[in-house]
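stuck on this fold:
=====
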Amino acid sequence: MSTEVRVPTLGESVTEATVATWFKKPGDTVAVDEMLCELETDKVTVEVPSPVAGKLSEIVAAEGDTVGVDALLANISESGEAAETKEIAKPAKEAPAKKAAASSGGSVDVMVPTLGESVTEATVSTWFKAVGDTVAQDEMLCELETDKVSVEVPAPAAGTLTEILAAEGATVNASAKLAVLSSDVSASSSSVSPAAPAAIADPAAASGKDVENAPSANKLMAENNMSADQVTGTGRDGRVMKEDVLKALSAPKAEAPSAATIPRAPVAADDASREERVKMTRLRQTIAKRLKDSQNTAAMLTTYNEVDMTEVMALRSEYKELFEKKHGARLGFMSFFTKACCHALKEIPEVNAEIDGTDIVYKNFVHMGIAAGTPTGLVVPVIRDADSMSFAEIEKAIAEKGKRARDGKLSMAEMQGGTFTISNGGVYGSLMSSPILNPPQSGILGMHKIQDRPMVINGEIKIRPMMYLALSYDHRVVDGKGAVTFLVRVKEALEDPRRLLMDL
């Protein structure tokens, strides 16, 4: 017998949601009310519990999919045997004799998962479980941080965490053992090492609640050094959800006393006592290293121009509603710039090339990198074969990659292989800047703030929305003439978007 799992009621006027995270995979056994996945709407995160005990037989809506109210998410095959098996995975206090009989009594090693191509090591960022904790299969144990992405490590089997071999902050190689699980779930808390570090205590356990908080909430609390007792849970039975943590983080701090009531610090106060030293994340270390390597290696030069955005803004204003209605994506400026750059790269192929030893490798395709700022640093997801994509396909790809970047869900493969990059500092208010190359690429375009300025048009002074453009390029590959011509072609395409349609 099969039971359907459907999207629950999302709230007044909310008609759709995005599947954020699946905590179970096909073949997993689930208990009644055990959380299967999380959905994200414009305002809140919605948890989807299992309506029955059984086995998850099929996932219909994958992570990242947009679903409407009552849409089919998954199917569960009901099974008494499956329900009994899931019962074994509950805390030992409920049926220790039954658990011991069902257990094999063996141990399972928790190894570093596949980190991605060319990635050989990672840093243990956060442990979500402590020694002695009972865990279910696929429950998240810890998080590793590589040069560019965070990697979650799930439990390979149900049991008890008996040993942690790599503490938080430790650097581990791609084949290292992280911990040991005892598949004998009857193991009691007496086996817990008395020296188990408090720093890796489960945020849910710290609250004293006998309820499992949302994994995404635990992760966010760990990242911000918060405990669950600092957050008011609004989920089932007081469960802390991701939005509860976000709300707690955004809550105004207690008002500081006025300056008149604060005693002045002595002039000779030790400044060191007022400093905070924080270890750089691996992502930040990699950003620093790659940018400095770029400056040290490439013969980097920047050329500037400006573009009148009147025609692009008019075209966007005229068609944006119709575009979104037909394609389900917003019509932004990035698709115009991506198209214009792809067009210019065909004429000036050296800007799309790279140096390999004593060779120059010309790319007959455009894998466009779109620089995106995230809470943990700058990342550059790559849109592959952007030169063969439509405006709608580009906008959808940029939106999807941007969201995954902000959520920290980009894979290594999604940030490799770019041939050219666009960076939009204008969203932060930058009027002009010189972007740094993303090696081994030979060119990067910097977009900036659109600002009204007086311009001379046909002998008359008119106010026009202008944007400064900056092209940084590797002078070892690209000559000044090619760089200037490239930027002029981008300018021409944006000032007369019809040229893109006519391939001019």
Summary: The two ends are 61 Å apart (CA to CA).
